[in-house]
Structure formats: C-alpha cells, structure tokens
Amino acid sequence: MGLEQQIRSQILTSTLEKFVNWARKSSVWPATFGLACCAIEMICTAANRFDIARFGMEAFRASPRQADLMIVAGTVTKKMVPAVVRIYEQMPEPKWVIAMGACASSGGIFRSYAVVQGIDRYLPVDVYVPGCPPPAGSSALRDPQAARKDPQRSVPHAEGRARRGRSPRGAGPSGGAGVSAEAPKRTYLEEVMDGLPDGAVAKRESFREQWAVVVRQEALAEVMRELRNRWGFRYLIDVTAVDFHPRNPRFQIVYHLWCHEHNVMLRVKAWVEGDPPSVPSMTALWSTANWHERECYDLFGILFDGHPDLRRILLPDPWEGHPLRKDYPTEGPDWDVD
User: Fold this and answer.
1) pLDDT value of residue 239
2) Taking the CB of residue 253, how many other CB atoms lie within 10 A of it?
3) Residue 282: how many CB atoms within 10 A of its CB?
4) pLDDT digits 0-9 by tens, 141-188
5) So what's the architecture of 21-139 in CATH?
6) Please, what is the end-to-end C-alpha distance for the chain in angstroms?
7) What is the distance between the alpha carbons of residues 322 and 302, in angstroms, rounded to a whole number?
C-alpha cells in the first residue's frame, strides 16, 4: 500500500495522444513568410518586447517542411494565392493556420477585383485575429505602468523649419527645400515650354508650382524627343494614365520627366484618341519606358506603337479587361485560382 502511494506521488499517467499534443502545443514552429503590413507586427512578436519564446514559438522555420503553423499576415491578392497554397501544401501534418488581421480574414478595406475576400476560401483557418493591424502583443502581455511612462516621440521636423532633401515630385505649396532657387526653376521650365515645336502644345498647367504641358497627340513623339535630347530631361520617372469616362477623348497619358542638370520636373500630358487608344512608344528614348508602358497597357488597355514586348506585367495573361478603367466592374470578372 505504501509503495502504491509513493508511485502515485511521483509518476503521472496519461495517454500517448495527450502527451504528443502537449509537446506540439509547447513547440509550435511558424513558417517564415509575410504578405503585407501585418507581417511587421508578426515580426515584432519574436522581438524582445513580446518574446513569444515563452510559448515555445520562437523557431520561425525557413522551410515549410519544418513548420506546422502558417500565419497569413497581410493582404492576400489573387496573384499570390497559388504561392500561399503551395507553401501550405508543403507543410507536414498536423498543421494549423492563423488569419492575422482584417485583410487575411475578410479582405479588409480592399473589396476589389485583385484581393481575396478571406484566405479561408482557399485554406482551412483555425484562428482569426482581428485588427488593422492587430497589435503584436495584447494588453495582458504589457506592463500598463511602464506603458504610461513611455514618452511620446519627438517630431523630426519642427514647425517652421525647412525639410532636408527634395521629392522628385517637386516642392510643395510652402516651398520646402530649395525655396530660394524656385524662381530660376520656373524660368528654365518656361524657357523649355517656349522652345517646344510650334503648335505642339495645346495648354500649359501649373498646380502648386508644378508645371505641366498638354501636348497634341500627333506631336507627342517629337515633343518627347526634344525634351530629352535638347532640354536634358533624361530621366523618365513614371508613365501613367487617367480615365475620364464617359468623356471623349476618354484617356489621357501622363509622363513625369526629370532634368538632373537643372533639378526640375515637368509633366507631359496628351489626350489619347482611337479605338483601341494608342500612342507612340518611348522605349527608344528611355529604356525604363518598357515596364511603365506595359503597366499602362495592363491596367488601362492603352496600346504603345513600336513597343518591343507589349504584354501584361501585373495581372495574369488570361485576365479579362483592364481594371483601372472606370467602367470595369468593382470586383472584376469571375476567376478561379488553379
């Protein structure tokens, strides 16, 4: 009798299933990957402030074959679904899924053609964590007294002081950096606009000290060649478009050019006519126009005559339509992920 009591006080009995599950609960290994801003909060959980090592979860694994927990942290686009599903399928059983944040749980604020309205449409989710973004640690893991003692961070740029550096978009309404050089900038741009080919410029625009010229479509190629070769605008920052549906002409192409020598930016706009709308390609002048023009074609359906490889760049090849057109359906066409 005494031996039985001694054994009971020193030995615990259980089932193998309970023991294995206890070991799994204390050694959850998440897969190392993130999708958007919620991934920053997920990274913070492994830092010293929150320290998930206390739960046995600090071993983020670089290989999905060594992980048993997938934390879907961030917005899931339809283009990323195949990659996420592949990672999940490479994880060994048993495995679990946490939908971290509003976007992973339900699409969040992004109810559009490109965003999955909840990862649970493709993966079995075990836990939903609300928030946008959800905090890296709950209030129970923090010291409320220490939190109240934390001073607020000082503002890096005090009121009334000029900020250092310049944005490639130009100075803001209050001038910003280089206020003293604003007059010669405008003088050079006015000289540039006055020197463009006769009849090529339909309109000049100035908004918050940023200049733009509206060029006639038939003169666009000649004007762009002049701006690069004669006036030194050798940096093509961006190419985009605007849809003014139902106006006719409907589309306006917009180029952002930068002159390093004079440190100025100029916008060049042109109304695009035709069905389908088309303009000359600028890849012969700026090699970076290759990707910019492909993006305009992908999202707006504008053709660029002479482009060496005009095809989609953001959306899959079988995608129907062009999503940034005003008459495109909000949630896009029905599209099943393979």
Assistant:
1) 94
2) 23
3) 25
4) 333 333 333 333 333 333 333 333 333 333 333 333 333 444 444 578
5) 3-Layer(aba) Sandwich (3.40)
6) 66
7) 9
- CATH tag, 179-305: 3.30.460.80
Region 206-224 average pLDDT: 90
The whole model's pTM is what? 0.51
Least confident of 19-33, 79-93, 112-126, 265-279: 19-33
Closest CA to 237 of 185, 286, 184, 186: 286
Q: What is the spatial distance between Cα 166 and Cα 186, in angstroms, rounded to a whole number?
A: 16
Positive/negative CA dihedral, 296, 299, 304, 310: positive
Q: Where are the domains of the chain?
A: 21-139, 179-305
State both tokens at 171: 């100075």
**Predicted local distance difference test score (pLDDT) of residue 151:** 34
- How far, rounded to the nearest angstrom, does the alpha carbon of residue 298 sit from its chain's CA centroid? 17
Q: How many angstroms separate the CA atoms of 33 and 94, rounded? A: 19
- What is the chain's mean pLDDT, rounded? 79
CB-facing half-sphere around the CA of 83: CA atoms within 13 A: 9
Residue 13 in tokens: 């009995």
pLDDT in tens, 10-42: 777 778 888 777 777 777 888 888 888 888 888
Alpha-carbon torsion angle 137, 142, 146, 148, nearest 10: 70
pLDDT of residue 1: 54
